[in-house]
Amino acid sequence: MKRIIILSLMTLMMAIVPQWIQARNYALCVGLDAYPAKVGRYRVKPLRVSGNDARVMKKMFAANGFSTSLLTDSAATCEAVLRAMKYRFCTAREDDVVIFYFSGHGTEEGLLCYDNVLSTASIVEEFKRCKARTKMLIADACYSGRMRNDTVWQNTFSKKEDVILFLSSRTSEVSLETMYSNSLFTMYLERGLRGGADVNKDKRITARELYDFVHESVTDDHFVNGSQHPVMWGGFDGNSTIVNWERKAKKNKNKDKKQNIIDDDTSND
Description:
Layout: H1 2-16, H2 19-22, E1 25-31, E2 38-39, E3 42-43, H3 50-63, E4 67-72, H4 78-89, E5 97-103, E6 110-112, E7 117-119, H5 120-129, E8 134-140, E9 162-167, H6 184-196, E10 204-206, H7 207-220, E11 231-237, E12 241-244, E13 258-262
Parallel strand pairs: 1-4, 1-5, 5-8, 8-9
Antiparallel strand pairs: 2-3, 6-7, 9-11, 10-12, 11-13
Helix pairs in contact: 3-6, 4-5, 6-7
């Protein structure tokens, strides 16, 4: 009888333990459509699908066992995003994966939040504090490719760390929205992480597999006609696992060695 009671209590305790304690992978998803007319020195036009981009990615990550957070529109101030990064990533351990996903406007200074620019340096600072070996920034924003050129990435992380930047376009390219409910890059990103990029069918999406799938899908899409080229950059093993995917992750309704870059672009353009 005592044994039955103890087992019942243990089951109950596991059921009420917060998700972030059990999880080994962490994702913060940020998306902004409803910008103010002016943010800092930038005059800004509203977007149409970036908020839904973040919601779709949060849902996908959560379905694959990630502990997730979501910030959209007026809730996505610079302070709130950095605070969420601290909270979400501080519990990560060495073997964990942390992902910061952003969909919105990009500038030459960084990513545009609701009230100001989120600088590349501030993202790097939060990544430095995080103990996880694999850290990934995914940015679906115009001109996001220029983030790889920021010197703050240089000599910041150890050779044991896999730091990955997956950027929706090259330095001089815009990132396109679509007629559907997601931007082009995020549409194929979600498909790839849901299993489309799993070439060898081992239920594991690697950095190389993800890049190959998304890059080919975006550049070949008739909507862009070769005008948008996703970039994957950093110091990482192309065989690093990004997601162990499950078929139970619901379908979106829309249709190696250490290296410095996975891309066909050598001009930093």
